[in-house]
Amino acid sequence: MVCRNRSFAQHKSDYLFYEIAQKKEHLQKQEPRAKLINLGIGDTTEPLCLPVTAGLVKQAEALGTRGGYRGYPSSFGDKKLRDTIAQKLYQGNVCADDIFISDGAKCDVGRLQHLFGPDTTIAIQDPSYPVYEHTSYLSGKAGRVDRLQMDPENNFFPKLTAADVIYICSPNNPTGVAYNREQLKQLVDFCKKNGSILIFDAAYFSYIRGDDFPRSIYEIEGAQEVAIEINSFSKVAGFTGIRVGWSVVPQTLCFDDGSSVQADWKKIVTTFFNGVSHLSQAAAMAALSDEGLQCAKEQCDYYLNNCRLLRDFFLERKFRVFGGVHAPYLWIDLDGKKSWEIFDYLLQKAHIITTPGVGFGAAGEGYLRISGFCSRLDVTSAIQRMSATSL
Ligand code: MLT
């Protein structure tokens, strides 16, 4: 008999969105006619932008020709795509050779764990996107994970404690707030002083409006020496199903013995990954064209407008509401009620799927996350249905 991997035995909970999907299936079995509205997982709903569709078609046709056929993609991504990301999204703040194209931020969060041995200490925001914690546990770091408490009084910016690796997400999932320049400078300085590596998740950067909040950690001086940034086209270009993301692993980032983090990252990428499909990379290139960027901005505005309508509803009902202005998520204070209790109530009474705050960590108890990723029709129906409840 094979001994079970101890890391899995130590990690009891299921992945949050899998658990929610099971509850949804259960309800559908009980009430097959129920028309569910999904304000739970942050999954895009609007059709692809025209330039993206055109890019996909063109690439598909090229692959069907002798001259245009290509086999395995490069493990690090097409040079042209890396150059375009460096220019258009980082305005030259980041060098193309430090950008690694991936099949999504979540997949990179998992692969990044291979950079760090089982003795590495980890600090994760509480609440936070569950994948940072799950991948830490599954890669043998249970018992080495510290949760950084966040509360509304400090705009959900965590109280920092020293750890080898610190995960921070801004604009933040799940609280929907964005951190300002001063807060991010404090973070970079803290990592520098303590010799920590910062893993900065910027997957929602395109929802930031105005100039008060940095869109990348590399807008902060010194970040190139401490930070890896993970990112994705899923929420930026509105295509979660196409699967393209990227990570920035700067050449200037080193381990304590002076060795290069990027060199080890290249080993991981070339060993575990065979590159992103040519079709997906063509979609990403098209999303970065002038028309593609304009259309992506309009889509982000659409989802932010959904948030505004939902926010107004909750404010009218006298809830404390956070987020939804620079991020596509609302974080609702349930005024003493339990997260799963309200989740179940809305599912049963209004057939609306939400995300219980406690699923993102103990500090999320008493909150509910509402996603703005849905159609306008679903938003207005959800508001009507919620108005008819005793929420
Ligand atoms: C979320 O809803 O937090 C995310 O969309 C889930 C994901 O990106 O994996």
The major beta sheet can be summarized as: 7 strands, mixed
Approximate shape? globular
How many domain units? 2
- What percentage of residues falls in helices of 4 or more residues? 25-40%
By DSSP (H or I, 4+ residues per run), the number of helices equals 12
Question: What is the element layout, followed by pairings?
Answer:
Elements: H1 6-10, H2 16-30, E1 37-38, H3 50-63, H4 79-89, E2 99-102, H5 105-112, E3 122-126, H6 130-141, E4 145-149, E5 165-169, H7 181-194, E6 197-201, E7 227-232, E8 245-248, H8 261-272, H9 278-287, H10 290-316, E9 320-323, E10 329-333, H11 339-350, E11 352-353, E12 355-356, E13 367-371, H12 376-387
Parallel strand pairs: 1-11, 3-4, 3-5, 5-6, 6-7
Antiparallel strand pairs: 2-8, 7-8, 9-10, 10-13, 12-13
Helix pairs in contact: 3-9, 10-12
Bound molecules: D-malate.
D-malate binds near residues 41, 42, 106 and 129.
Description:
The protein is an alpha/beta fold and 391 residues long. It folds into two domains: 14-43 and 292-387, Aspartate Aminotransferase, domain 1 (Alpha-Beta Complex), CATH 3.90.1150.10; 50-288, Aspartate Aminotransferase, domain 2. The chain has twelve helices and 13 strands. The protein has helices spanning 6-10, 16-30, 50-63, 79-89, 105-112, 130-141, 181-194, 261-272, 278-287, 290-316, 339-350, 376-387; strands spanning 37-38, 99-102, 122-126, 145-149, 165-169, 197-201, 227-232, 245-248, 320-323, 329-333, 352-353, 355-356, 367-371. The strands form three sheets. The chain has a seven-stranded mixed beta sheet, with helices on both faces. The longest helix has 27 residues, at 290-316. The protein starts with 5 loop residues before the first helix and ends with a helix. The mean pLDDT is 96. D-malate (MLT) binds next to loops.
